[in-house]
Design a protein that fits this description.
Layout lengths: L3 E4 L2 E4 L5 E5 L5 E6 L5 E6 L7 E6 L5 E4 L3 E4 L11 E5 H17 L10
Length: 117
């Protein structure tokens, strides 16, 4: 029997997230997965030489524009434009965020203040 997790709108079965591991051509480890809406995401070891860091987030923002009567359609960004969609987090920053993420994983809510360690 699958474990059930409480939600505000009732009970929902836990669904396992598919993840794949690989390495870049330069040998940096990364994991790929999809978010709730099917957007391709990744977490990758950074090549930053001064401290340990990761890249984390959506790989392609898939920009859309709302056209009345048509809905959201793909919006082509000029090749000269760079849109950064992944966070570049240091190991210390990840440590700072872990209590917030762990609280959410346990409760489904964000803590209203920093929890003491």
């Amino acid at each position: 029997m699958k474990k059930q997790y409480p939600r505000l709108n009732g009970w929902k079965e836990k669904q396992k997230m598919e993840k794949t591991f690989d390495k870049t051509l330069r040998g940096f480890s990364f994991w790929e997965f999809k978010d709730k809406y099917g957007m391709k995401c990744s977490i990758q070891k950074s090549s930053l030489a001064t401290e340990d860091a990761i890249w984390f987030g959506v790989d392609d923002t898939q920009p859309r524009i709302m056209i009345p009567g048509q809905g959201w359609i793909p919006y082509e960004i000029p090749k000269e434009v760079l849109i950064s969609s992944r966070m570049h987090l240091t190991q210390d920053q990840v440590r700072e965020m872990l209590p917030i993420l762990e609280h959410f994983a346990k409760t489904g809510d964000l803590p209203e203040k920093e929890e003491k360690q």
